[in-house]
What does this fold into?
Amino acid sequence: MSKTVRILLFVCVLGLACSSGAMVMVLLNRQNAPQVEPVSVRDYGLVILPFNLTDHNGDAADESALRGQWTVVDFIFTNCVGACPVMTARMSEAAEALADTSVRFASFSLDSKRDTPERLREFAGSYGIDLDRWAFYTGDDEQTRTMVADGLKLIVDDEDTNELTLDDGSTMKNIVHPTRYFLVNPDLEIVGLYNSGDPAEVARLVQEVTEFMAED
It folds into this structure.
């Protein structure tokens, strides 16, 4: 074997040894690295705050209507032409998929001026919603916005540059609002967040609420 060949073989062996040593060091460092627990939605401290509103039947309602049960919640207004129709349609899909469970649904209006109990019943009817399982709430908009801002750490605001033309020819400012679904546990804590813009999120919501209820 020539000297050149011996040198090349030595370099190759040395390279393999260094690579093996580096791999061992990586594995050792991984084993010694502190294990970080994954953050759950519950760790964010989001909650449904106390409220005093009116339901779709015109009856007074407060947070006790949600306490003690699992509830999927969203925030909408019935004249919304953007996200709200999709939100309601996909939440209806979740309600259908969970028809054999005790899960309840709740939609909070952000436009009490127009979303009267009568209007909310009409809106629910257009989607074939079972009002025995799905409640709609309206009332003091400032209170509902506080629920979003302080309880859910999100934003509701009137969009000055975008006006909606209603069926009667009048106009209103568009309302910027959360487009997520919130899974609320019996203690009124938010334990799940779901993007209404993604159809796959409905399946994840159904799966997770089923799992949560099985553990409860």
